Amino acid sequence: MKKSPPVLRWSVALAVVIIVAALFMIGKSRMGVDTDILNAIPAGDPVLADARAVLKSHPMQDRIVADLRCDPVDPRALQEGAALVIKKMRDSGLFRRVGLDAEMGAFPTLADAVVENLPFLFTEQDLQRNVAPLLEKPAVRTAIRSQASLIQGLEGIGQTRWLASDPLGLRFLILGRMSHLAPAKGARPAGDILLAADGTRVLIVAEPGTSATATDFAKRADRLFADIQAELNRTWPGPPRLILTPVGAYRAALDNESAAKTDTRRAMVFSTVAVAILLLIGFPRPLLGLLALFPALMGTALAYFVLSLFRSSISVLAIGFGGAIISFTVDYGITYLLFLDRTRETRGLDTTREVWSLGLLAMMTTAVSFAFLFLSGFPALAQLGAFAALGVVFTFAFVHLVYPFLFPVVPPAGREGTPWLRRFSEKLASADPAWKPWAALALCLALLPFARLDFQVDLKSLNTVRPETLAAEDEVKQAWGDILNRVYLLSEGKTYREMREKGDRLTALLDEELARGTLSAAFVASMAFPGPERAAANRLAWQAFWTTERKEACKHRLGEAAAAEGFRPWTFDPFLRQLESPAGAAVEIPASLYGMVGIAPAAGTGPWRQFVTVLPGPAYRGEDFFNRLHSSGLARLFDPGVFTERLGRVILEGFLQVALIVGLLTLLVAALYLLDLRLTLIALTPTAFALICTLGTLHLIGRPPGIPTIMVSAVIIGMGTDYAMYIVRSQQRYLDEKHPSMALVRLSVLLSFATTFLGFGVLALASHAMLSSAGIALALGIGYSFLGTTAIVPPLLRRLYRPIALPEETVEAGSKNHARRVLARYRRIEGYVRAFVFFKLRLDPMFPRLASFVSGPRRILDIGCGYGIPSSWLLEIHPDARVFGIDPDSDRVRVASRAIGGRGEMTVGKAPNLPSLQGPVDTALLLDVVHMLDDGELRLTLDRIAAVLEPGGVLVLRAIVPAFPAPSPERRFEERRLKRQGGQARFRTVEEVRRSIEETGLRVGLPESMSPDREVWWFIARKPREYES
């Protein structure tokens, strides 16, 4: 390859950096950070899907409440302070509504509607069970007396009309069903605020003008409340002091984003600095080692940009994982540069050819394990998987596409690197002492009892808030109640009418649940505003209930009560008229009451929604209630208890599913790549060890696996295999644990582990709960994976790669036993080599024809020996033979040397050079080589072969000879192969080959075509004996 000028190469590299940086900035502007923990919940399960839908759309999700406390109690200061807070909030323009003015203004309208709708509000059961007892004489007197006392107070202003239309207080039967909706018992409205029962604090409710979790709103709201508190402090420096405690989703969103961004910056800075220090220590040329970070940074930036093309937001887990991605993708740069930075001259393309095969398997297992995280059902984990998988692939591609261009030739380094670090890596990854696997087994067995698959399902583990936010939430919950103690329903309809019809059916269902004790309280809008069908049925029940006798008795008792309480005889005539001729249709729900009765009008093309709050009763069984509600199709349910239980079950199933799928995929990828079941099992053993030890350790340290831990468990499987894959793959390639390149691989594994462990270690120290939990699990998993790799893999590989001598026996040339014995010489060698040998033996007509050309050889010269397949084949049928081969490909020579064992020697070199022979040979093989040599090289090669052949020795030559107008597959393949390598194929005719051989003094027999449809010919030549000359 023609070498580019350094200025050009580094100019191109700078341009690449600028382009990638620009793409990253574009991606950052396109994709925001998603801090909503609901987006981390799997959506496939009906319980979780219902919970997510309810929580996503419930008004309380965005609602902000501000608790104002006065210390010591001063009612006037409390009232004035509340007025100031409300004014500031309204003036800010951040809120659509502040205070209870709408509810307070709407309550008379609600009461009027309930009183007017009385004939339509009671079922037959309600009338018999709840209304009939109110018609008894003492009950009538009590009702009139209670309402008389009520209208005499200030709170009774405007209630006189309700007394006339509803003297029995039937409206309280309906309005009482809403009592459980109050934030706290005893709390009462007071203008725009809600006043606590003890009068020490007020609650101010506000609805944001936009999403409360939007970053801009959250920041502005946080500043607003800080400014209000500052003004309260200036106005009431104390005593008394006014303490404002705002609570809402905006605080959690702000805390989560702040923590995630801080953690991400810290992780990237610390992991980058720590990695840089390690690289400076580990490389002969420290500055060259720093370049190992370059592909990781570029790959992560490109991954972020590509992800932004398909998503508008990225989860906090994925963004926090960004620093960790850099720490483990740096592995590929480390391995490449360690092989490039050596004490001899190296070439970029040669290094790529050597390192590619070592790192490809590790890259594939890691990328596949991350990519398949979408099977977990967790959206956040799917994003993390896509981000990490893209980062891994882009980094690996960057290393092998860009670095060979940047470093075409690297001069020798002046030193070996840091000696103590290399000695340390050698000692760690050594097969000695022999007790290491037993120690690992003992540790695994000790932790096995603690490695329980019991998970801590807590949504708080996905969320991170400051201590101040937690304290504020606790204070408000203690004072005003806890939202999680209630059960929420969501009923939807495409139209207003459909929503009302569903509401009627839902009311009937909830009435049944109330009757059987499943629920203790529930309110649906249909209870105050029934739809046409329910209203008609209730009207008939009302008319049937009010018989002539009941009406007369009621009229008489009301008259007596009116006289006793000082009312005029006709005061209750409006109510009595309702008994005689109730209205023909129920009053429709006024729009002003939508919020009060839990109705949310359709937004655009969205559905109409109705929110219902219920309280569990003594016979409540959450799972059964959900099943009945879900089968009816009337509403969605959010029950914290059912939700938590089902989430735990789904997470466990997801963990087992992902672990199984990723484990099987890793096993499949490794098995297909290694093509050796024992090696595959050895490579995966440290991962099994790591999973058991990680689970056991988490329980021992009091951090049982939570949602984030489970979510990243598949990552441990994929990434944890990398170290073992590198060791196993390099052993399979170099076949000798003392090979110089094995030392580089061990050092690479140590540095890769150290950088990855540092990245996850920094993540474990994150303030964000999700990132910290995931970081602890990953740090333990990667640490145990490395421990398992160094303690288990080397001793097992040494045992597996012990030389094994096949029993001596007479072998028939070309038999199945012959092929089996030849294949056995390539056992544990790289999979594609063994596959090549297998198909070569089965498909190449050379075998068994080669046996007929060679008779009882003792010393064989093999020029262009390749993997040594013909030599090994001959050695099996000639036990006394020895082989001396030469080939320009060092990888092929390495394999051939392993195959022939101690029965010869294979040398790296190119014809016309010959290996060191130290004596004549009786057989020379020149198979499929002559088309790669020019005329001069061919003549010199044949001359040298003739010179080393003993009299009577045989030259077996096979060559591709053009015989057809259209090139044969062999000829096309060789032309393209040599062209890619920068060479040229020189095919010769039969006569030209024959003449070239005879010019050396060898005698050629009749050339023989290997097959009529092939362009491959045999040339068998013999060196004349002295008496034949």
- pLDDT averaged residue by residue: 84
The count of strands amounts to 23
Count, helices: 38
Strand content: 5-15%
Helix content, binned percent: 55-70%
Coarse morphology: elongated
Gap from first CA to last CA? 48 Å
How many structural domains in the coordinates? 3
Uncertain stretches of 5 or more adjacent residues: 153-157
**What structural class results from the helix and strand content?**
alpha+beta
Radius of gyration: 42 Å
Query: How can the largest sheet be summarized?
Result: 8 strands, mixed
General description of the model:
By secondary structure, the protein is of the alpha+beta class. It folds into three domains: 6-29 and 254-458 and 646-800, no CATH class; 52-250 and 481-494 and 511-600, no CATH class; 826-1028, Vaccinia Virus protein VP39 (Rossmann fold), CATH 3.40.50.150. 58% of the residues lie in helices and 11% in strands. It contains 38 helices and 23 strands. The strands form five sheets. Strands 16, 17, 18, 19, 20, 21, 22 and 23 form an eight-stranded mixed sheet that branches. Strands 2, 3, 4, 5, 6 and 7 form a six-stranded antiparallel sheet that branches. It is elongated and about 155 Å long.
Give a brief rundown of this model.
This protein is an alpha+beta fold and 1029 residues long. It is 58% helix and 11% strand. Strand 16, helix 34 (869-877) and strand 17 form a beta-alpha-beta unit.
